[in-house]
Amino acid sequence: MRTEKVMGSGQKKESLAAEVRSLFVSNIRDYAMYIALAVIFLIFTITTKGLFISSRNLINLVNQTGYVAVLAIGMTLILIIKHIDLSIGFVAGFLGAVAAILLSNGWNVWLVIPTVLACGVLVGVYQGFLVTKIQVPAFVTTLAGMFMFRGLLSMVTAGTGTIIVRDRVFLQLSNGYIPDLPWGANFDFHLLTMLVGIGLVAAMIFSQVRHRQSLIRYQFKTNSPTIFAVKQVALSVIIMVITWIMASYRGIPWTAVIVTVVLLIYNFVLTKTRFGRHVYAIGGNAEAAELSGIKVNRVTFLVFSSMGLMAALAGMLYTSRLASATPTAGLGFELDAIASSYIGGVSVGGGVGRVTNTIIGALVIMSLTNGMNLLGVDISFQYVVKGAIFVLAVAFDITTRKRAKA
Amino acid sequence: MTKDYILEMRNITKEFPGVKALDGVTFEVQRGEIHCLVGENGAGKSTLMKVLSGVYPHGSYDGEIVLSGETQAFRHISDSERQGIAIIYQELALFPELPIYENIYVGHEIMKGYVIDWNEIKVEAAKLLKRVGLNIDPNTKIKDLGVGQQQLVEIAKALSKQVDLLILDEPTAALNEEDSANLLDLLRELKSQGVTCILISHKLKEIVAVADTITVLRDGTVVTSLDARERKVSEQEIIKHMVGREIENIYPARDVTVGDVAFEVKDWTVVDPASGREILHNVNLNVRKGEVVGLAGLMGAGRTELALSLFGNVPGYDIRSGEMTLNGKRMAFKHPADAIENGMAYVTEDRKGNGLVLIQDVKFNITLPALEKLVDRVVVDDNEEIKVANDYRESFDIRTQSVAVKVNTLSGGNQQKTSLAKWLFAEPSVLILDEPTRGIDVGAKFEIYSLMNQLVAEGISIIMISSELLEVIGMSDRIYIMSEGTITGEIDAKDATEEKIMAMATKTVEEAV
């Protein structure tokens, strides 16, 4: 069984139980997150008598998570390079309001979206400039940004109060679903959604098998075939269940499509490109990165710009979802985004983190919000619960890392 | 005659998952002696000291520790400190922004009722500084001291705790020859005052000079314990025990024909904008193809600053005048990226601080400076990366389970080889090595030297900054000596002696006095 060879050591074939145990111990950080998510789902399903797990609510959860997920993806990069961005909540709120204003002034939606995204990049460029060229600490730069954009949001909404958005395309962003195929009417589920789900499973298995083959080729440690198969089946089942939930309702929400595209792009950039390597190198040791020829300032600048872009996108998703821009939009978004990243395993010490896990972190945070809303929990108490979960997650993260080191 | 042992560690066995770091080690130290502990990296010296000091608490190892006849069970460093044991680590634990006196008494301040008695502390600190031979105002901040002086403050701090057994882990690794000599004198002085010392060091010359007893560790066991009072122990003998074989010549010979000038610096004058001080003054040097040029000098002579200012000027110095020529072309690097692109590489003196990304694996580190070589359109080719890293692992003999192992788990020597591999992957024509063998063991040193020979044979030019004079003499073709930011001498390695180099390295210092 050459697939079970452990590099450089003459270890015998592990028993299945032993392998499961070692797999669990070495990945406890990731598994804990999934288990936490499962527990949250279970508790809310029971306490809401099944309401939480209903198709309608889960779709709602996806739409709710959208803007936080997008912010958290941008924030993950910021945190990996050991910076922080406190401004993004009100940047998102402000840019969402800008979108609403432009739309109500009769701008075409296809012009509004790129314009607002460009504004987001500009905000990122401004903050990135302060952080890299002037060397103002990110904490200060973005705290100042928080003040300013909060003020700007109040200013633009001062005359009218809440700005209602009526553009149908724009409203689709966070409330619409992908259209079905022409002959989908013959089925009592959303055909295209099912096909996408099946395609995803096929793509996942294909890429996992290829990855495993390359590991074997280089004689790196791999899981036994049994474990590998179980993992693939389990993941496939999860994907198909989610697909079915969406297909039996109204199909895939546009928010899910947008978040997935953003996620795929960021994941690709972080794991496959030079830029991604540079981000991790800077987070791991900025001085060594600089001396290795990495232009730390330039990378930092780009990371802040991308954060601005994500804030603009999040702002529009949120405005679309509420069908209006409000004077308080964006309040506390940055906290949800930071919490999502840390719950998703971004290291407090920098240099470690994955956007795919950050999405799970965002789901944890938003499931809590969603579930507690269903239960009618007071908003003040919700903050207490979220804060507690957040600090627990980071404490757990730090303890497991310490143990891994010893 | 029964010997008076201050410390007896009997049958110490300490296991980590998968490795036996110490295997039945018995280590006995007599009262009032200087006991040197030597061994290659990974031989178990640091582990043994951590067991002794309670970093690894009682119960996490087998065996027993007897201190002045009493069995001890330390659960924490504070337990061993209370029994008069103090350890000074290689990485100093001082507060740079605090004055000397506060650093000495931090954690055990002298109290008057509920408040700290600063006056008493200052008086006592001044006495301690005198005892360690440091004639400096105790109000001076640590950041204004040199490394050698900081080391002395650490010792003063240990003495303030009424230490009986002082353990020094590589105290001279970061020191120049003069400071090292001072430190060794101090150890002898402390010995005469009844303090027992355990000295861990890779510098065999010092060990031979100062040791009463030498214990050699190899692979977690005691190979031998030599009594240096009865007879003189030679360096060769220690090396033989350390590596288990005899290394004939520490500096391998090479036969390389030196070519044309590959890299030249003229009238290089640099000012540190923070202090406005001129840190480099009219530096002129060159290195030829296939040549190893040594850059000797005391700590603070400006050698690292020179390297950094040439290699893309990361510290942001103000380069007032001068020009550099690389392979016939005039250059001005704005960033290390430019330097790398034009065939220059700089292996830092501080591999943990600014050399390697410790939380990443071996392959990540090796490919970092020249990642574009692995990029196919925009994607980094992971498979090619593994192949490249494995090639270096084999050719440099980087001892690791696989290239996917995190660098912070490797020993110092293997980290240094990873550092070198990283820079050779960038295919430099001029390679600056800053203290390439600091803190690594004899065996790994020999491997690094052999690699250097191989590189110059391939036509690379090497500038080697080193504070170990024998290394500079042994490995260089030509040697420049720096002092206070200027080149004070140039000498052919064949004619070089330690005395000649030291004379030039202290030249302007004496003139300034």
Describe the protein in words.
The complex is a heterodimer of chains A (406) and B (513). Chain A has 406 residues and is an all-alpha fold. Chain A folds into two domains: 51-176 and 254-380, ABC transporter involved in vitamin B12 uptake, BtuC; 182-252. Helix content of chain A is 74%, strand content 1%. Chain A contains 16 helices and two strands. A two-stranded antiparallel sheet of chain A has the order 1-2. In chain A, helix 2 packs parallel to helix 15 (355-374) and helix 3 packs across helix 14 (333-343). Chain A is globular and about 70 Å long. Mean pLDDT of chain A is 90; it is low at 1-12. Chain B is globular. Chain B folds into three domains: 5-243, Rossmann fold, CATH 3.40.50; 250-343 and 428-513, P-loop containing nucleotide triphosphate hydrolases (Rossmann fold); 356-426, no CATH class. Helices cover 33% and strands 28% of the residues of chain B. In chain B, the strands form six sheets. Chain B has a six-stranded mixed β-sheet with strand order 6-9-10-3-11-12, sandwiched between helices. Chain B has a six-stranded mixed β-sheet with strand order 18-21-22-15-23-24, with helices on both faces. Chain B has 513 residues and is of the alpha/beta class. The chains are: A mainly alpha (406), B alpha/beta (513). At the A-B interface, helix 11 and helix 12 of A face helix 10, helix 11, strand 20 and helix 13 of B.
